[in-house]
Amino acid sequence: MNDRRLDVTVLGDEGSIRLDRVLAVRSPELSRSRLKALILAGQVTIGDTPVRDPAYHVNAGDTITIDVPPSVAPEPEGEDIALDIVFEDDDIVIINKPKGLVVHPAAGHETGTLVNALIAHCGATLSGIGGVRRPGIVHRLDKDTTGLMVVAKNDAAHKSLTEQFADHGRTNEMRRGYMAFVWGVPKRLTGTVDAPIDRHPHAREKMAVRDTGRQAVTHWEVTETFNDRHGKPVASLLACRLETGRTHQIRVHMGHIGHPLMGDSVYGPHFKTKANALGPLSRPALSDLGRQALHAYMLTLEHPRSGEILEWLSDLPADLALLRDRLRATE
């Protein structure tokens, strides 16, 4: 079904009434929750201006336009998307995820996700315990974060992996390691960030360190440092290990200690001066990166059936390897 466009003109006796209440009366075919979601998504406009506040007060004579996207299937379908499979047996699949691949369907990404690819690859064997929208998914990587992920192929494997990820190596052997290119050089070679993470109070698409958040712990170690074209330290390559698994954890924590990830437009956009100090080879490598410089390079876990401790390593992808080589060249 194609997009629908609904036009509602505010009558004289409806002036100075909340937007969501006017629409609830004038568009009864849409539920209140659906209308709220459309407002928050910017699908409701007055004139040519999106109005994202359900409590916005309309005026008599206003023409409100509602763009209603087509309905989607409640369950994702399989799609023929190439996967870099590092390991696979009857219980698990280890994927080396490329940049740009969304893990599971969500608003704005209903198709072309890792889940769509897994459904096509695994068929009916894929675990359903994660729900129809996230079958087999135990953990996630951000869209533009590359590296190793494990997927459960049956419910027993999903249960075992979920328990391991909840424990995060406190009492078991599960480990997740990331390579992160960050701005600046920490004063120490190793450190730990123990700071709770919650939704950002104003930008809902972001996370932030907040006292109201859930515990989040990231261990880091400097593995290499890089100088700018003047010979001064400008960036570092850190090996990070997660003790918890919060959304955007490494990106938030590194920004919190003053060393945001290179290329991170969400948590580290204020480092243009440092970027200008990079050498003539490094600057275009960073500009062409187009994403946060973060790669999940190591995954260790207990096999859910055999109990064997297994470990996988993933080299830096081509874009990050190029960034590293170009940063080295400025030294």
Description:
By secondary structure, the chain is an alpha+beta fold. 22% of the residues lie in helices and 28% in strands. The protein contains 8 helices and 17 strands. The protein has helices spanning 19-26, 32-40, 114-122, 155-167, 249-256, 272-276, 282-289, 318-329, and strands spanning 4-9, 17-18, 44-46, 49-50, 57-58, 63-68, 85-88, 92-97, 146-152, 175-183, 190-194, 197-199, 207-209, 217-227, 233-242, 294-302, 309-313. The strands form 4 sheets. Strands 7, 8, 9, 10, 11, 14, 15, 16 and 17 form a 9-stranded mixed β-sheet that branches. Strands 1-6-3-4 form a 4-stranded antiparallel β-sheet. A hairpin with a 2-residue loop joins strand 3 and strand 4. Helix 7 (282-289) runs antiparallel to helix 8. The protein is globular. The mean pLDDT is 88.
N- to C-terminal distance:
57 Å
- The helicity comes to 10-25%
Multimeric status of the protein = single chain
- Which secondary-structure class do the elements indicate? alpha+beta
What's the helix-strand series? EEHHEEEEEEHEHEEEEEEHHHEEH
Quote the beta fraction: 25-35%
Radius of gyration, Cα only, in angstroms? 23 Å
The major β-sheet equals: 9 strands, mixed
Number of helices: 8
What brief labels describe this structure?
331 residues, alpha+beta, 9-stranded mixed sheet, 4-stranded antiparallel sheet, 22% helix
